[in-house]
Amino acid sequence: MLVDADNVAPARLLPLLGLLPADGRDVRLMVSGRDAALARVRWPAYAEVVPATGWQRADVVLAAAYRPETGPLVVVSGDGDFALLAARHDGPVLVVSEAASARLRDAATVVDPVQDGVGPLRRWLDAVTGPTG
After folding, report:
1. Which of 64, 76, 92, 133 has its CA 20 to 30 A from that of 57?
2. If we measure between CA atoms, which residue out of 84, 79, 85 comes closest to residue 101?
3. How far apart are CA 96 and CA 111, in angstroms?
4. Residues with Cβ < 8 Å from 96, sequence gap 6 or more?
5. pLDDT tens digit string along 44-59?
6. What is the pLDDT of residue 132?
7. Cα 24 from Cα 4, distance rounded (Å)
8. Residues 6+ apart with CB under 8 A from 1
9. d(CA 10, CA 76)
């Protein structure tokens, strides 16, 4: 999971974090953003949190952390810079965002937990990993 803390408000991120295994089993959570954005959320102990300041720096950190594989990919950002990564990923892709770019909407399933609720997140996770409870 790649999280651009600068790009998505905690209200959209926290429902997703609440569905993840508490112990981080089978989850790689990479988070980047400005210190102020990172401080808005209490990240799970298993999260890899990398502060990044400056235009597009968090995007660079997250893109570098991406590992091509066939498993599911979750991108928490509406930034179109992740569209090529999402389009080329060999597994299912979920984007959590308030206003995902058109390029991301074309390449992935997009959910806004504030507008759509937690149900679509749970159904997507269940479909790609098994029941979340």
Report:
1. 92
2. 79
3. 5
4. 8, 12, 13, 16, 74, 75, 76, 110, 111, 112, 113, 121
5. 999 999 999 987 899 9
6. 58
7. 19
8. 20, 27, 28, 29, 30, 73, 74, 75, 76
9. 11
End-to-end CA separation in angstroms for the chain: 19
The token duo for 15 is: 């429902």
Q: Which of 128, 91, 92 is nearest to 110 (CA)?
A: 92
DSSP symbols for the chain: -EEETTTS-HHHHHHHHHHS-TT-TT---EEEE-HHHHTTS---TT-EEEE--STTHHHHHHHHH----SS-EEEE---GGGHHHHHH-SS-EEEE-SS--HHHHHHSEEE-HHHH-SHHHHHHHHHHHS---
pLDDT tens digit sequence for 88-99: 999 999 999 988
- The residue whose two tokens read 């992935």 is 108
Global confidence as pTM: 0.92
Residue appearing with tokens 């770019």:
101
